[in-house]
Every structure is written in C-alpha cells, then in structure tokens.
Write a structure and sequence with these properties.
heterodimer; A: about 160 residues; alpha+beta; Beta-Lactamase; five-stranded antiparallel β-sheet; globular; B: about 200 residues; alpha/beta; Rossmann fold; eight-stranded mixed β-sheet; 5 helices; binds guanosine-5'-diphosphate; binds magnesium ion
Chain lengths: ~160, ~200
Amino acid sequence: MSSDLVMYEEEFQKIDEELQKLFQQASAKVVFLVDKNGQLIASAGETREIDTTSLASLTAGNIAATGGIARLLGEKEFTILFHEGEKDNIHISLIGQRVILVVIFDKRSSLGLVRLRVKKASESLVRIFNEITSKAEKDKSEGKLDDSPFAEISDEDIDNLFK
Amino acid sequence: MSFINYSSREINCKIVYYGPGLCGKTTNLQFVYKKTNPEQKGKLISLATETERTLFFDFLPLALGDIKGFKVRFHLYTVPGQVFYAASRKLILKGVDGVVFVADSQIERMEANIESLDDLRINLAEQGYELDKLPYTIQYNKRDLSNVAPVENMNSLLNPRNVPSFEGCAVTGVGVFETLKNVAKQVLIELKKHY
Ligand SMILES: Nc1nc2c(ncn2[C@@H]2O[C@H](COP(=O)(O)OP(=O)(O)O)[C@@H](O)[C@H]2O)c(=O)[nH]1
Ligand SMILES: [Mg+2]
C-alpha cells in the first residue's frame, strides 16, 4: 500500500491557491483536481451545480480507458484529452503521472488560453505533489502520523459507522 | 489506494465488487443505494449497455459517518463480468483498497466463478497487489434459487484461506450490508496498521 495519498493542510492550501489562480487566469467555469483513482482532491469555481464526486470518478475512468488504448497502440499515455460540447468544453490533463487536472470552460475562454494556463499550473502542481510524496515518505519512516485518525480507532468506532 | 485529507478531514477508500457476469454485483450496489439515506450517498452511476449489462463500471460513493472527526467515505465499484471486458476490469482494480468477490451459487456457474477468481488474482498481480494481502470478503449470492451448490462445497472451491464469507440474495438484500460492512471494516483495520 505504498501509494496512499496523505494530504495536509499546508499542501492543500497551496493546491487550492493554484486552482483558484488557474480558474481566474483561464477564465474557466470550473477547475478541479482528481486523483487517478477517481477521488476528488480540490476544486475551484462554480461547482455547486455539478456533481463533482461523480465527475471525478468518470474523469478517472476516462483517463484510465484512454491510457489503456494508448498502451495498445504502443503509446505511453495520452496526457491531454479535450471534449467539445455545444456550450461547455472540457480539458483534461494528466499531471506527473498521478493526478488529473480538469478545466471546464465556455465561450468566455478559449482552448488556446486554457492550454497555456494549464501548462503553467501543471508545473507548480507537480512541485507541490513532489513535496507531498516526500513528506509522506518521511512520515512513514518516522512512524505514525501526528494527529492520525487511526491512532486510537477501536472496533466500536468502526461498528458505529454502520449504525 | 486510500486518500487521507487532513485539510477537509476525510478518508476515502475504494472497494471493488468482482465476480463472473450476472452473479449480482450491480444488484448489490443497487440495494445499498436503495437502503441508504440521501445525505449519505451520491449518485449511482452505471455505465451499462442498452440491456443493462455493465459496460465499464458502476460507481456508488457512500459517506458512512465519522471516525475521530474524519469523514469516512467508501467508493464502491463493480466490474463488467463478461470475459471480453478483461481490459476494463484491470483498469477498475487500480488503487483498490478492498475486494468483494460475488460468487454465483448456481451449480452451473461454478466454473465461471473459478475462472473469475483466477482472473482477479492475475489482474491484481499485474498491478502489484496480492489478493491474499488485501482486505477481502466473499459473498455466495443467489441462495434463493433451487439449483445452488452447498456452501461447504463453494467454500472449499473458492475460499481455501477461509476469508470471511456471507450467503446472499442481493435482489432482496440478504447479506448485502453484512458483506459491505465486513470488507469496510477490514479496510479500516488495514489503514490503522499503516497510519
Ligand atoms: N434469484 C436471484 N437473482 C439475482 C440475485 N442477485 C442478482 N440477481 C439477478 O441476476 C441478474 C444479474 O444481476 P446483475 O447484478 O446485473 O449482475 P452483474 O453482472 O454481476 O452486475 C439480474 O437479473 C438480477 O436481478 C439473487 O440473489 N437471486
Ligand atoms: Mg453489472
């Protein structure tokens, strides 16, 4: 279980800032970041009307499926996907092999602008995720995490979840 | 692969329902969906063919409750069972934290069960997982039918390690929550070992 993702407040803030920045600079409707396994990490913009949990899972499925196609063709992975709709467009990019950045935009923006801004944001996000990884490795080698929700978890706590 | 977020105080885990075609995986999720409170669940997403056979996956996000101030969420997935969807099954196993193997209890489906279980082991191994080291629960489904194999036989065929197993009838919900609860518990206990 080497690839669990543990996210602390500090890194989360940085990610959040990056997404806010991207959201504004790309004139996007919504921006969000999804783990490759389909879990939503963070979002920015008009997310209220969107079922982000489902969107995250389907986006990851989409990336996984095109990744499978890529391997069949002898490509490593398709790192950018773009879907064009009547009103909204969606730009999906794979960042550092690990997370998926999704930008939804309409005619207030353009593919060119989104591409450019995504590229910039990707570089920062890769750096942040590298920090997260090295921090997690350090924590693991030093033993349990501070303030771990699992530290004193009891059978009863787990049973209570299913009441 | 679980996702522990200290900022939003959430723990997210992924559980995959595996098994041969038509064994009742989708029905398990449908029952869970039907019986949970609206505030605890997201949409049940089914990527299915026109005849309601699972094409890529079903997905149901469930928020169970809190542990030590952390919201515990399980993402339930099913795989498409038919042999020719092998590539899709592999993809869905990525990042799995716990597996439910749904076996079809009908005697004529024993071979399909065995084949699917072999397929599960192989696909997990390709991702670097070992079934014997993962949280893992078996459900013997369709116990309501008349042509079923005795549970002891199924156990010796499909469950040599004697992992937790439950008899089920997913259409009426028998065994559905018992199975889910068992695997979820194993997942959390496993996480506790690491964090
Ligand atoms: N009699 C009976 N039928 C079941 C049971 N569980 C599922 N089924 C039926 O079996 C068929 C296939 O179920 P489905 O959940 O789609 O299988 P999947 O391919 O594993 O997703 C459906 O017609 C279900 O209603 C059960 O416990 N008993
Ligand atoms: Mg199905």
